[in-house]
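This follows on from our talk about sequence and fold. Please put the record directly below this note.
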Amino acid sequence: MTEDQNINLVFAIGALVLVASALFSRRIGFGEIVRNILAWVAIFAVFIVGFSYQREILAVWSQVSGEMTGANEQLVVGDTLRIRQSADGHFWVDAKVNALPVRFLIDSGATTTAMTMRTAQNAGIDISKSPIPVILTTANGSVEAQRGTIQSLQIGPMVAQDLPVVVAEEFGDSNVIGMNFLSKLGSWRVEGPEMVLEPPTRAPAG
């Protein structure tokens, strides 16, 4: 357990002791006391889980709500794409991978764009048949991934061709835009609650 989870557990136990003391001080049947204690245990369990994993819950909610409503909080202004920060504190974007709609988390800390195995297969990604996997270090430990190539990745008005990608089942439901895409842009930056992506500067016609 993390330090925050330990603190939450101590708090919950203390609160349950107080609730139990209050119930036993009342002259009610033992069966009703047990039912009340179980109800409070359930309430505190929900509270602890919600507080301890609030970032993960918000991330899942952001992804699911975006897919259900189709509202990704992104706006194309000319050749520029502006993306509003989601409730989980991250920037999510709706893209097209080989014409397949895919929702991505933009992560400037990721070196390479990453996709789940199921999404990559659905998008027809060219996945390497090499028996030697790529070993990646993630927040959840080491992950074995395969190299692949996205023939066409479109985000707003910007398109990247033949973009390297890593693919693994262990990525769960998260697809990530990494620096190998961001570095192809003319610029990218965060302005307050928005991320701004700008296309490469076109060379003047000669």
The chain has five helices and twelve strands. Helices lie at 3-25, 30-52, 54-69, 117-122, 179-182. The radius of gyration is 23 Å. The first strand starts at residue 74 and ends at 77.
